[in-house]
Amino acid sequence: MQETILILDFGSQYTQLIARRVRELNVYCEIHPYYHYPELSVDIKGVILSGSPFSVRDADSPAPDLSKIRGKIPLLGVCYGAQYLSQSSGGEVIPSKTREYGRANLSFINTENPLLRGMTKGSQVWMSHGDTIRFAPANFEVIASTGDVTVAGFHVAGEQTYGIQFHPEVYHTTEGSVLLSNFILNICGCHQTWTPDSFAGSTITWLQETIGEDKVVLGLSGGVDSTVAAILLHKAIGRQLHCIFVDNGLLRKNEFKNVLDSYLHMGLNITGVEASERFLSVLKGISDPELKRKAIGKAFIEVFDIEAHRIKDVKWLAQGTIYPDVIESVSVNGGPSATIKSHHNVGGLPDFMKLKVVEPLKSLFKDEVRRVGTALGISQSILQRHPFPGPGLGIRIIGDITADKVHTLQEADHIFIEGLKTAGLYDKVWQAATILLPVQSVGVMGDERTYENVVALRAVGSTDGMTADWSHLPYEFLAKVSSDIINKVNGVNRVVYDISSKPPATIEWE
User: How many CB atoms are closer than 10 A to CB 450?
Assistant: First the structure.
């Protein structure tokens, strides 16, 4: 039995942020589409309705049947969720005279209400809506207002049903954590028992019960996610786990040998496969980023399948899939989230690989994976490694891929990453990358004119990869890295620094 908060997704850009805020309270939650959610059980302690890009006034807007939820367990509607609760109960929602987006302040707040206890009048909230509740039904008590929004919060008399027009999950709502804590801990009665240690323990038990005596094969990438997944499985089933680490020729400099050595020292049952020539061959002449991803993925599966068939009677394929992989690749549990790009470890297996799939980390964000890794005793030098894409340097070489381009990028990337470590900046950056651009620029070296390659440096700060801001690295550091790359990497005469945030840009260039 695990206490759970359900989040019904209406397509808001903030839905995943609600989930993060709930989990920061050490309470487990799940996101489900508004039209398909699990049956209520004693472990479901409350439900949160997300915002939405829809208007409740639209004929095709989400209109879920909440009869099995409302009045039976605590319910909190956020933005669209609040408007839907009001309108479906007889209230009126109308277009705002002006679009209400950004900061606002609570001019009235009923701190006697359990949802708002501990909050202060005048506290800042974040609005993001084009409609407003003109009036709420008679049994809806207004518990918060701003200068422009009369019904900024309400409580339904006789029910543990609440609605708020603002977004408590975003940073700009300064007391949002107080409100969510009130709802999750006090109103829903959750006990804050979902911790990294509890997750590790329950997952190991679940893996033992699910897998039994079967053999499992896992493709290790050298990254945090697959490593934590491997150790969870190793602790659960030991030598029944067979790990395969493929060198696709697109890893960082010396990555294959160093990572393979570290896995062997961790006691994992692992086989290393050198397949760089095969990958470079299938990538020849391909420039489109999605086609490159698919070619790399297809080649990996083919190499992996050959190695997996060397192991007799394998029944399971393990993957290090985490929540952002799922969110960006397919709609969350079938919900209305947009697809951004394909991920290498999300999607169907080929017909010839008839294995059941086990994904022990698919409900976790990246920072949660690291905390679970710490609970498992994995070295921080591994856990704090920056994320690295499955297609590797293949999507950091813009355009077609050749062995020479890979070598050039490996050398430049090595200088950047090692420079970050030497300067004590590596742990202050969430992810760093070097990108080889498909342009050449004029330069001067000595008395000669050059016409050589350009590389872009990318460093971002983030928590889970869903959003990211560019890292403000010291000018002196950037100057040294630029000089080192230009002087030590043949064929590069210009270095630029990427100062784009996500959104609108993505972290990777492809």
Answer: 17
Catalytic residue list contains 36: no
Direct distance between the N- and C-terminal alpha carbons of the chain, in angstroms, rounded to an integer? 42
Our CA dihedral for 228, 231, 237, 240, rounded to 10 degrees, sits at 100
* Tokens standing for residue 191: 């006990």
**Measured CA angle at 358 (ends 207, 216), to 5 deg:** 75
Contacts of 377 (CB under 8 A, 6+ apart): none
Question: Side chain identity at 12, as an amino acid letter?
Answer: S
Active site residue 3: no
Encoded tokens for 305: 């399948």
Strand 44-49 relative to strand 4-9: parallel, antiparallel, unpaired?
parallel
Q: pLDDT tens for residues 286-313?
A: 999 999 999 998 898 889 888 888 999 9
Choice among 167, 242, 344, 414 that is catalytic = 167
pLDDT tens-place string over residues 255-271: 999 989 989 989 999 99
- E strands, 136-207, where? 140-146, 153-156, 161-164
Residue 374: burial class (beta carbons within 10 Å; 0-12, 13-18, 19+): middle
Q: Is 79 a catalytic residue?
A: yes
Catalytic residue, candidates 100, 169, 307, 510? 169
Concatenated DSSP letters of 418-466: HHHHHTT-GGG-SEEEEEEEEEEEEEEETTEEEEEEEEEEEEEE-SSSS
- Closest-CA residue to 83 (of 74, 95, 72): 95
Ranges of the chain whose pLDDT falls below 50 = 329-348, 351-352
Catalytic, out of 29, 79, 188, 243: 79
**CA of 481: how far to CAs of 168, 441, 491, in Å?**
41, 19, 16
The span from the CA of 331 to the CA of 276, in Å, is: 33
Return the residue matching tokens 């900024």: 152
Q: How far apart are CA 72 and CA 365, in angstroms?
A: 30
